[in-house]
Amino acid sequence: MVTCGGQATIPMVKAVSDVLPVGYAEIVASISSRSAGPGTRQNIDEFTVTTANALKEVGGAKESKAIITLNPADPPILMRNTIHVQTAGDAQAHAGAIKDSLERMLGKVQGYVPGYRFKADPVIKGNIVTVSVEVEGNGDFLPEYAGNLDIITSAAVRTGGSYGREHAKGRSG
User: Fold this and answer.
1) Which of 19, 119, 122, 168 has the fewest CB atoms in 10 Å of its CB?
2) Is the peptide bond before 76 cis (omega within 30 degrees of 0)?
3) Cα separation of 85 and 22, whole Å?
4) Out of 1, 2, 3, 4, which one is annotated catalytic?
């Protein structure tokens, strides 16, 4: 599994790279400091390296950078992520296809993270695509502002279910 910031941003980078090659992707994940436990605080360097690598390996970017901020605002903010993608070709000329790909990916992620949504409409200018997403937690066990914890848990549950179904197929076949 990758970081919460990676879970929230890599799908959008992948959606763009499905249309055009991505030369560079940069993400900024902002989470409430109240939802960042000691593990997150002690591993910020690992977060940036792991997320940046996954932006390349899974998202399809040639180069990448990841940044995380712990926001001390009171009341706490929802998880917000800004994704900047520089395409190898003219993204504006492919704006319709890119936006369609982003919308499809949004729907896929919302299938297991209902509080995942665009914070603003994606912006495409020249070869730059900017996407802003936020993640609101379900508010069932954790506060709604802890979307960073919900998205990583939801991704783990979905992955575990997938492995379980594949394992069950192997036994019955």
Assistant:
1) 168
2) no
3) 7
4) 4
Name beta bridge partners: 63.
24
pTM of the model: 0.92
For residues 145 and 105, give the distance between their C-alpha atoms in angstroms, rounded to a whole number.
22
User: Pick from 170, 155, 145: which is nearest to 34 by CA?
Assistant: 145
CA proximity to 12, closest of 166, 161, 124, 168: 124
Q: How many CA atoms lie within 13 A of 27 on its CB side?
A: 37
What's the chain's average pLDDT? 94
Per-residue pLDDT at 110: 97
Asked if residues 32 and 77 have their Cβ atoms less than 8 Å apart, the reply is: yes
110-165: pLDDT as tens digits: 999 999 999 999 999 999 999 999 999 999 989 999 999 999 888 888 888 888 88
Domains annotated for the chain, with CATH where assigned, are: 4-172 (3.30.360.10)
Provide the pairing of β-strand 61-71 with 22-32: parallel
| Residue type for position 92 | Q
Annotated active-site residue 4? The verdict is: yes
**Residue keyed to tokens 């790909």:** 101
Beta strands in the chain (DSSP E): 22-32, 61-71, 79-87, 116-125, 128-135
The 10 Å Cβ neighbour count of residue 28 is: 17
